[in-house]
Backbone:
């Protein structure tokens, strides 16, 4: 209760200070659509539900679409419902999947032949829906997504390509996109027979993407070294991007949910998480936030970014709660979350929680070409309440409120 009171004072003060910029100042809790006395997790969730009555609209979509960003936010709603047991959160979650999955379990906007690892992340909350409803269409959809991995193209050392259109490449993002789903599925339906293959994906990332000097991991790696962005000796992309590191941190703490402690690979993944946490702690700004380009805060144009910070806050808090990380990282997570709510969150006159300074998208290659340079990352567009910030924000709030 003390923490909530403290945060309430902080956010009202922040809103007043930022009033000239937003023209919206919260001075009272009366008649607000999102009451400020609620925990941050519910305030963010209610904001999304008010602004986007259909869950598929959260990324400004007008039609249902199977997509990883929706999967991330729906995972946060799953955890929020488990915590609060408020039916509206469950209904919002279920509504997304009922809008995107047909009665026969097919997913019209999902194209398996694209072999896009991103698409598996939207399946993470499906396990919970199937458990709570036993509806066959959810199981069929899970089986469809799992079948992608049987033929998904791989590197010579069996690492999953990020996408068919990005041959020979592994990105940090892809570990979150595919690995928690794969681990959950193989434990639930295959007696864990593919857990070694799940761990292998992390082993490949550690082998090829870790920078020995900083301990950070590069955004991507091209085994062929043919991409213009790839280092001709190592195949790595040229910079560290905080959100990609956030995806990787979340992948580690979430996969560990399904990796039994007595499994030979469990300790290995915990070591990877601790190494990453140590490297990231060194890069945390005094405000508690992290820069868009993680290690270059002193360069003009770099900015303190919301989505990566939220992902780190969640990963560190969960890592401590689960016993994977030393307790000191709870303070790192608290500092990050306080920095978010103090510096990057605005509260509208309706009480809506608006996360600012969130990078909307970033990648490597493609058309127009993305070269992975510092200038590229800091000039990508930003989007308020980008789902890649709101989902981890809810998850972090839940972990920190335990």
Residues:
């Amino acid at each position: 209760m003390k923490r909530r009171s403290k945060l309430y004072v902080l956010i009202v003060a922040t809103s007043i200070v930022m009033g000239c910029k937003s023209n919206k100042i919260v001075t009272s809790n009366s008649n607000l659509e999102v009451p400020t006395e609620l925990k941050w997790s519910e305030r963010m969730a209610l904001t999304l539900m008010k602004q986007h009555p259909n869950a598929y609209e959260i990324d400004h979509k007008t039609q249902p679409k199977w997509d990883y960003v929706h999967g991330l936010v729906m995972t946060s709603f799953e955890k929020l419902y488990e915590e609060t047991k408020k039916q509206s959160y469950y209904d919002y979650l279920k509504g997304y999947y009922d809008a995107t999955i047909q009665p026969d379990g097919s997913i019209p906007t999902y194209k398996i032949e694209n072999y896009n690892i991103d698409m598996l992340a939207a399946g993470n909350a499906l396990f919970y829906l199937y458990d709570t409803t036993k509806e066959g269409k959810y199981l069929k959809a899970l089986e469809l997504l799992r079948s992608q991995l049987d033929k998904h193209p791989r590197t010579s050392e069996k690492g999953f390509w990020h996408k068919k259109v990005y041959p020979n490449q592994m990105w940090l993002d892809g570990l979150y996109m595919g690995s928690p789903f794969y681990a959950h599925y193989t434990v639930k339906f295959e007696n864990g027979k593919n857990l070694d293959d799940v761990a292998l994906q992390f082993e490949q990332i550690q082998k090829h993407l870790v920078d020995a000097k900083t301990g950070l991991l590069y955004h991507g790696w091209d085994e062929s070294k043919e991409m213009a962005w790839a280092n001709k000796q190592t195949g790595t992309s040229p910079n560290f991007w905080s959100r990609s590191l956030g995806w990787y941190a979340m992948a580690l703490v979430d996969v560990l949910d399904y990796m039994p402690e007595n499994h030979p690979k469990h300790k290995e993944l915990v070591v990877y998480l601790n190494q990453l946490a140590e490297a990231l702690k060194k890069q945390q700004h005094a405000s508690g936030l992290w820069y868009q380009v993680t290690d270059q805060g002193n360069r003009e144009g770099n900015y303190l970014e919301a989505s990566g910070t939220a992902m780190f806050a969640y990963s560190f808090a969960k890592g401590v709660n689960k016993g994977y990380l030393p307790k000191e990282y709870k303070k790192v997570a608290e500092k990050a979350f306080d920095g978010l709510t103090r510096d990057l969150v605005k509260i509208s006159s309706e009480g809506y929680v608006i996360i600012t300074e969130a990078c909307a998208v970033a990648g490597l290659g493609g058309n127009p070409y993305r070269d992975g340079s510092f200038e590229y990352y800091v000039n990508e567009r930003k989007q308020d309440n980008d789902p890649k910030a709101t989902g981890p924000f809810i998850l972090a709030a839940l972990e920190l409120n335990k």
